[in-house]
Amino acid sequence: MSTALAPVDQLLYTPKEAAVVLRYGRSTIYELMAAGVIAYVKQGRSRRIRRSDLEAYVNSLETHSH
Fold first, then answer.
1. d(CA 42, CA 34)
2. Burial classification of residue 50, based on how many CB atoms lie within 10 Å of its CB (0-12 exposed, 13-18 middle, 19 or more buried)
């Protein structure tokens, strides 16, 4: 009998994972990171984006109504 663990909220995303979550291209994520629009953390050569920074980016987007 196996015990299934409850899914854990992901705290850090790779740029590729962030692109999937936001439905952007991976290069767009790297451009936003380079421009300082999306904050990230760096450990060695790896870059990771905090979930809270993705949420802050989405919350900063302007809404347009027609």
1. 13
2. middle
- Residues 29, 53: Cα–Cα separation, whole Å: 12
Q: Judge whether 11 and 51 are in contact, CB under 8 Å.
A: yes
First to last CA, the chain: 55
Question: How far is it, in rounded angstroms, from Cα 42 to Cα 3?
Answer: 34
Inter-residue contact 15 to 21 (CB < 8 Å): no
Note the pLDDT tens digit of each residue in 12-51. 999 999 999 999 999 999 999 999 999 999 999 999 999 9
Place 6 in a pLDDT band, splitting at 50, 70 and 90: low
Q: Are 14 and 48 in contact (CB under 8 A)?
A: yes
What's the whole-model pTM score? Answer: 0.80
